[in-house]
Structure formats: C-alpha cells, structure tokens
Amino acid sequence: MLIGTRCGAWWNDAVLHLRIISPVDRSAQVERLLADDVAVTHVVVFPGAARDPAGDLITCDVAREGASTLLERLRGLGLERDGSIMLESVDVSLSHSADRAERRAPGFGVDAVVWEQIEQATAEESRLSAAFFVFMAVATVIAGIGVLLDQPILIVGAMVVGPEFGPLAALCVGLVRRRASLSRRGVAALAVGFPVGMTVTVLATWLLDAAGLVGRDMLLADRPLTSFIWQPDALSWLVGFLAGIAGMLSLTSAKAGTLVGVLISVTTVPAAANAAVALAYGVTDEAAGSAVQLFVNLAAIVVAGVLTLLVQRVAWRRR
Prior knowledge:
Blueprint: E1 15-22, H1 27-36, E2 40-51, E3 54-63, H2 64-76, H3 79-82, E4 84-89, H4 96-104, H5 115-125, H6 130-149, H7 152-161, H8 165-177, H9 180-210, H10 216-220, H11 234-252, H12 260-265, H13 269-280, H14 284-318
Antiparallel strand pairs: 1-3, 1-4, 2-3
C-alpha cells in the first residue's frame, strides 16, 4: 500500500487503529481526550503494560475523518516524545460501535486527510534507495526504446514502472505542511533520479546502436504516435496540472484509482527518456524540446498538487 506500487488504493479503510504508549502521569488526560471524541471507539487500557518506553498501553479505533484531529491533540500532550503513537489501517471492522463513530464524526472518511499518514508515506517513497534508482533507470530506458520504435505500449510500460510520483508528492506535502526536510528530500530525489535515469538511457542507447538494434534514423523518422513528447504546448501544462490534481487526490483520498501513478508518469518519464535518446544522437532541438516538456510538466504537477492540498485543508477545517 505504498505510493510507488501503483496497485489499488493506499488507504481504503474507514476505521483506523491507534496504539498509544502514554507516560503514567498523562494517561488520565489521554483517556479523557479519547472519551470526549465522538470519532473514537473500542478504547482499551493496559495500565503499566509498556516497558520501552515505560508507561500505560492504550488502544482504540478512530473513524478516519477524525484521525488527524485526534493525532494533533495526542501530539500536543508530548506523547510522540515521551511515549509512542502508532497508527494502523483496519482491513475489516464488524462493529456497531465503529459504525456509530463513523456516523458521528463530521464529514466522510473517503474525503478525510490524515496528514501524519501522508507525511510518513511520502517520506518513505522519496528515499534515494537502490530500488528507486533501478526503477527510474528501467522506466527511462523502456521509454527510450518506445520513443525510437514509436510504440505507445512501451511508453505505457515505462509509466507503470516510474517511481517519480513519490518525490513529487513529498515536495507538495512538505510545502503545504511546512516540512522543509520533506520538501528537500523530494527535490533531491527528483534532482538525482532523473539525471541518473537519463544517463543510463544514453549509455543504453549507445550500446543498442552498437549492436545494430536501434539507429539515429529511427529518431529522425516520422513518429506520429510519440512526437508529442518533445513538442510542448499549452496542453502540456494542462495535462500536467490535471495529473497533479489526480495524484494528490489519490494520495489523500481513501478511494484512489489504480492508474493514478501512470497518469503522473505520462508527463515526466517519457519526456526524460526522449531527451536522453536525443542527446545520445546529438539531436539538440529534440533534446531541448523534451527538457522543456519535462520541466513544464513537473512544475504543473507541483502547482496543482499544492493547490489541491491547500483546498482540502481549508475545506476540511471548515467542515
């Protein structure tokens, strides 16, 4: 259920499970807070059960639409510093009490934004790990081959593999939540990931050319199905903007579509691959056009993502 997997909704549960370790001197406050929250149910207290850190173990379930507010209040008690707060998704909940909590909580769980969950997920997906670099390189090489063969099916395959949605989401969330470290991590992943993928694609293009599998004439030939990749226009910005909206909604909503990550990649990985192939063959005008396409789409995605998150935050606070 991570961003880079492209498989199904990330958080499709109406009820979330909280496991809290509270210092003994604050347990009474935690219990009152939980008792007063209409979105909370199934409260269980184990006095003195926790050993590391020491304290009382308190568990409960909370309707998704009330989770972020509850987490903010718990953090206000210093539990993340002196104890522990853990949040888990509940796959199946058969409980009238849980149903009642969902009805009482304001808004709809499918529209709720659990900011802490989003921050942690995007931070994980923007790590400069070996897997991230491999996925980026593989996606860009596949897209590069698709460009030379003028085969949209290969472009789609590259879009499925591309992992760049994680860093883009981290950048947007970091800007909205004012988490400088999260924004820096997203920028670093993009700034390193794309050049690595493009460099590998240039080398792969040279190797395939030496093996006689591809050639410069394939790049210069008429490519009606993929030529749009290196010819940016007003629609390029629009597609990137719409992709950013869809991406952020899929990140925050409990009802995400299965192909949102592919939609994000349609505006990024193919452009990077086309630029790399054009550089490999010294076709500078096409490389420049592809680079412009890439930067336009990245900017549009970030602007749309930030605006979507801001609108969601304002709307949810009013609700």
